[in-house]
């Protein structure tokens, strides 16, 4: 019986692909200069992750083990192409902003890893839920990292939201504080490395606090028997 609570806990926190497994770091650090870019890439990755998990689970009984990885990559590449064309058609500004990192979703280790480790061994429902939770966990880290960098770098939130949501979203931009000169360290990849390190450290601190609050189990007493030799 599938433990959906455990799958959700693994994807969102305990085994988060971006925060714990450190997978997909190339797009994670490159496009998270703003929340809009981070959310756009995160949603694209989530759609591909769920779709690939479902398709891999459906064909797992028919694919020989010797060629399973090439087949999985072909499935992922087909889904990425569909998502790329949709973004190109309906969010062209975001398409230009994300650039090469959209087609590079094909090589994202999160997707091929879940296809091989989970989807190829479980039913469709479990595979879809696993893809959803892993995708939401990865998107959450992208958005948090993008928010940190955007606030520190240019003092705004949701700048360029119209690129993702349409012209009506231009008013969603929040001016947290005025910046005369952008803080380039936060906007460039080195700032992303620093921010990511802070997030990992924060997670480790939270995990330590949670572990300390758990009731400690007393060590089991080991009974020793004394054997007396009888002549």
What would you note in describing this structure?
Helices cover 63% and strands 2% of the residues. The chain has 231 residues and is mainly alpha-helical. A two-stranded antiparallel ribbon has the order 1-2. 36% of the residues are buried. The model has no long low-confidence stretch (mean pLDDT 89).
What is shown here, in short?
By secondary structure, the chain is an all-alpha fold. It contains 10 helices and 2 strands, in the order αααααααβαβαα. Strands 1-2 form a two-stranded antiparallel sheet.
Helix-strand blueprint:
Blueprint: H1 4-14, H2 25-30, H3 35-59, H4 68-90, H5 92-98, H6 109-117, H7 124-154, E1 156-157, H8 162-165, E2 174-175, H9 184-187, H10 189-213
Antiparallel strand pairs: 1-2
Helix pairs in contact: 1-7, 3-4, 3-6, 3-7, 4-5, 4-6, 6-7
Membrane topology: Multi-pass membrane protein
Function: Part of a membrane-bound complex that couples electron transfer with translocation of ions across the membrane.
Subunit structure: The complex is composed of six subunits: RnfA, RnfB, RnfC, RnfD, RnfE and RnfG.
């Amino acid at each position: 019986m599938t433990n959906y609570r455990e799958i959700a806990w693994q994807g969102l926190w305990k085994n988060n692909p971006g925060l714990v497994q450190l997978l997909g770091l190339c797009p994670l650090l490159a496009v998270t200069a703003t929340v809009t870019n981070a959310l756009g890439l995160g949603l694209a990755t989530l759609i591909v992750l769920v779709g690939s998990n479902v398709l891999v689970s459906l064909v797992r009984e028919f694919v020989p083990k010797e060629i399973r990885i090439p087949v999985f990559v072909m499935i992922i590449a087909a889904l990425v192409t569909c998502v790329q064309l949709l973004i190109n058609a309906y969010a062209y500004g975001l398409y230009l902003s994300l650039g090469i990192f959209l087609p590079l979703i094909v090589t994202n280790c999160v997707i091929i890893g879940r296809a091989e480790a989970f989807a190829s061994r479980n039913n469709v429902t479990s595979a879809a839920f696993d893809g959803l939770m892993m995708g939401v966990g990865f998107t959450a880290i992208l958005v948090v990292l993008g928010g940190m960098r955007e606030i520190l770098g240019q003092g705004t939130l949701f700048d360029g939201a119209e690129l993702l949501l349409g012209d009506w979203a231009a008013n969603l931009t929040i001016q947290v504080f005025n910046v005369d000169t952008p803080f380039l360290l936060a906007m460039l990849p080195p700032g992303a490395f620093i921010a990511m390190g802070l997030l990992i450290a924060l997670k480790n601190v939270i995990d330590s606090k949670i572990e300390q609050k758990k009731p400690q189990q007393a060590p089991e007493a080991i009974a020793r028997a004394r054997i007396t030799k009888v002549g």
